[in-house]
Amino acid sequence: MFKKDITPGAKTKVKSSAQRGIRTKILDTYPLLTPYIEDILPKKEQLDLIKLPDRVSLYTLGTTPLFFQHMDDALMPHLALVHRYPGCFARLRIDRGAIRFVLSGATLMTPGLTSAGGRLPGDPEDAEGRYGREDLEPGTVVVIEAEGKENACMVGVLKAGTAEMKKVKKGQACEAGHYLGDGLWALNLG
Fold first, then answer.
1. Looking at CB atoms within 10 Å, which of 82, 119, 148, 173 has the fewest?
2. Which of 158, 156, 157, 163 is nearest to 180 (CA)?
3. What predicted TM-score, i.e. pTM, was given to this entire model?
4. Are residues 96 and 154 in the same domain?
5. Which range of residues forms the domain containing residue 152?
C-alpha cells in the first residue's frame, strides 16, 4: 500500500465527538490496549487527521503516528505504536526466508508462517502462548514478527484464517498494510 515515498496532504483537527468514536473503535478492535489508552490517546489531547494518497487517513498525536485507515477498512496500528506496545496485538511470526519479501512489500505467503521458523496461534513450540491459543479469522488485523528479530516488521490483514493455513500450507496468508521502510514508515511529520 505504501511502497513508494508519500507526501502528506492536509492536516485537520479531529472533532472531540469523532475522537471519542475513534477511541471506542480502537478499544473494540484491540481490547488489550485498554490499560494504555490514556497514554496512547489522552482525552485532553488533540488528535489530528492527515490525508494521504489513495484515500488513506493517518491519525496522529502531534508528530506521533498512531493509526491509519484505508477508506472504511479497519483501523490499523502504525508500526511505531506496535513497537511501543508489542503484546497488545494479534501476532504471527515468519521464518527468516520470508523477511526480504515482507520488507519489499510483497503479500505474505502461507509457507513463511507454517515452516519451522514460523509461528501461528496454538503452535506446540510456542509454550508461553506469545502467538495466542485461538485461531484467527480472515480479515483480522495482525502484527508480523520475524524469526530472530526483536521488533515487528509488518502490520497486515489476514487473507486466510490460521486454521486453514495450518491445513493447506500454501496460498496467500496476509496482505501487507504497512511494513518497515515503506513510505508510511519514512513519512516525516515534523
1. 148
2. 156
3. 0.92
4. yes
5. 89-179
* 2 inside domain: no
pLDDT at residue 177 above 90? no
CATH of the domain at 112: 3.10.400.20
Answer yes or no: do 80 and 96 share one domain: no
Structure confidence by residue, pLDDT tens digits, 27-56: 999 999 999 999 999 988 999 999 998 899
Interval 95-154: pLDDT, tens: 999 999 999 999 999 999 999 999 999 888 888 888 998 999 999 999 999 999 999 999
Cell 511501543: give the residue.
84
The SS3 of residue 169 is coil
Say if 169 falls within a structural domain: yes
Is-contact 76 141, C-beta < 8 A? yes
- Which residue's entry shows cell 511470526? 93
**Would you call 31 helix, strand, or coil by DSSP?**
helix
